[in-house]
Amino acid sequence: MGNTDHGNSKGDHPESRDGIPSTNGFDNRGNEEADSHPRQHPLSQQVTYREPDEYTRLLPASAHHGISGQPPLDIDDPAVSPLNLWSIRFLRYFTITFLVIACVWWLVLLVTTFVSPQGFHSRGGGWFAFGYTSLAIGILMLLLFSFTIPSRAEEVVQSIIAVLLLVNMIIILSVPGLRQEEGWIGLASAIFVLCVTLWAVCVDRSVEWGKKEEEERLTGRAESRRSLKEWCSVFSALTIMVIFLAITILFTGAISLRAYDQSLEVPGKRVWVEDHNYRVHIYCTPQHDDKGREKVTVFLEGGERAVANGLLDWAQENYVNGTIGKFCYWDRPGYGFSDVAPSPLSAGMAADALSEALVKIDEKGPFILVAHGVGSIYTRIFASRHGKSIKGLMLIDPLHEVYLPNIGSPGRGFLMWFRGVISPLGLEVLFNAIFKARSREDRIFGRSSYLNPKTIKAKLQESLAANTFTKPEVSTSKAILSRKIPLVVVSSGEGVKRDHRWDWAQKEASELTDNLLHWDIVNKAGHKVWETADGWKVMSKRIEKLVDVVIKEQEHLE
């Protein structure tokens, strides 16, 4: 037993003739070596070893796979999504919050279009704020639509939009008149849409990074190709974003024109009314050489357009030649150089604003009121409330109250609202400015003034209040208007011949008082009677007669 040696060298191991170790149960060392190495899968013994080269990975395909032992996912698997990252989910939830805020603000602006709560009045009409908020909602909805499919082209377009919106905001802040018209509502909306656009750029970039990370983690590589569905989504989102870019360019052009129009000198005074809510423009001529004819002031009220759109030229000529000793005119809220009033605004409310403005400029009359078209409604209400200071009425193709339902029809109201909504685009305004050389005067009180956002808002207010407020006010004024006031009516010959109802309305207007001096129907004259030579002469002759009558009455009282 002492001669037994268990520490023999490898030559002592029993071997077969082929040199393969024996597998019998008496070979203890062979069993120990077999137990010291882990057993391998049979297939792994067939993999041939390859030397590392330039195609060999430095790191495992995925740490996750290395740990879990699962094979990589297909790139089209729904589980491969950037939303797996909590940071990307947070961005999506925050985007939804932005969208909710934008929708709530949009609803607030929609309500203020029809009723202006305290502190929510925009003196410029509020259409640009509404347009900015609508653009913000569109950008956010598009961002959520293509949230998991970011596009570098879309990011570029969004960046351009952000730059243009920044330019718009700078224009609003740097032009005092524009800044005052837009107010805090317009500024807040401009800042909000700028922040939304910048947020969209950041979110797209973050989602692009998250998508790449998840693809590398779950598939082993970042995928550069896109499926047909993804390409359709990217193309659709990019097309809509380009439309948003075009809208922003139009916004910039329209607001640049508005800023340029602010440089036009105001001929009269802008007077604060209704506890500094808004300003109305009122103009009075300087002292005239003829002191006798200055005893009465001719006050002009415009019709569907501002007084400066034609009627002022007629008054100016009669002032220069001495027919009129003194005249004044004003721009109703939203017209010409006046601010937009809070909604709702009826004819009686506008007449009260005029009364306040006249007191503040110390203009006490007595007055001869000259009104055109729909302005006769405002003038009649004003005259009924200032009976002692009103010495004469001259109505030029006046609008009768029976036409108020037409003004207040739902169709006309919707049309005015729709025109206001698209007014920030400035489509027709920009076209007229570029191709028809329309000037600042044209846009404020001239040929293109009907496209002015303030005028559109004023006409919308006029439509909304026509049946509910203005009609009862006119009925009341008709009952209390002094029957002794001298009255002149000058009617359109074309209007009378074309519409028997209009003929009847002109006859009714001639019976507003018991002191009718003249009722003239000017042949071949349209609604703007003064645009024909005969109309100009008739109006000049009648205002001279009316002034003479009032002066004689004043001298008799003295």
Automatic annotation (TrEMBL):
Chain ranges passing through the membrane: 93-115, 127-149, 156-178, 184-203, 231-255
Basic and acidic residues bias locations: 7-18, 29-38
Renumbered residue ranges of the record's region Disordered: 1-47
Keyword annotations from UniProtKB, A to Z: Membrane, Transmembrane, Transmembrane helix
Pfam families for this protein: Abhydrolase_6 (PF12697), DUF2417 (PF10329)
Keyword Magnesium: no
Superkingdom per UniProt: Eukaryota
Transmembrane as UniProt keyword: yes
InterPro entries, A to Z: AB_hydrolase_1, AB_hydrolase_fold, DUF2417
Domain AB hydrolase-1: 329-530
Species in which this protein is naturally found: Orbilia blumenaviensis
Protein name as catalogued: AB hydrolase-1 domain-containing protein
